[in-house]
Amino acid sequence: MHVLVTLRPLVKIMPSQWQQYVQNGLRMGYADWLEHMLRRPPYEKPNPSFWHRHRHDRLVERWARAVGPGRVTVVVVDDRDRGGLPRTLEVLLGLPEKLLRPVPDAANRSLTLAETEMLRNLNVEFRGNGLPDELYSRLVRGGAVPHMKNASPPAPGEVKIVTPRWAVERAAAIGVESAGRIAALGVRVLGDPALLSAVPEQPEPGPAEPRIAPEAAARALYGALAAAAGQASVRDVHQASSRELVRILGHRRLKRLGRR
Length: 260
What we know:
Elements: E1 3-7, H1 10-23, H2 30-39, H3 49-54, H4 56-67, E2 72-76, H5 84-93, H6 113-128, H7 133-151, H8 165-184, E3 188-190, H9 214-228, H10 242-259
Parallel strand pairs: 1-2, 2-3
């Protein structure tokens, strides 16, 4: 058994994880969430799972302790090289070059700031009125969110989630500490560990107020209504199982025969 751990800089993980937590019902804004995760010991509220997953030195140490340092490889991902991770995996597994190809997955895209804020405010209303978690899971997580992601790609000018400078610097400091401890564990490291502590150039949050496009809001609402009516949300073909595809194609064939 060999364990492969892929790592990205913490500063890039934080906005992605916050909007993912919002998709799961979080009501806290990004600035408050950063305060709790980075400035308020023991850094366990509101999401205790965050540091369990993203304190990377401890993550690698747990795996090294379980299988031995010689059976752990850490790959530091460079986001500037889109094909870097697939090429690394091909070398490690002895696969032909360019065998692994990315699969476009609209459902896996991150939400924009406007979409996340719309959903966060919905969470406030939903939880504040005491509606059941099962209803939230079915209508919002299983209806509104996936339909909005699939049917409404973000516009080029969308306001992005921007991490304030103090949080970027704190994340970079944690990256330095993590990289040093990982190096001391004796595991194999591929890629540049300095990337874990790099401070990217990014603008400070500006005065522009995020506004969600009416089309995106309408698609999110439709996704919730479709889930309430028991209909499946729109999905890409690769997200469906082989059995589902056979059933759908067979049903369409029968309909065509019926028309004839």
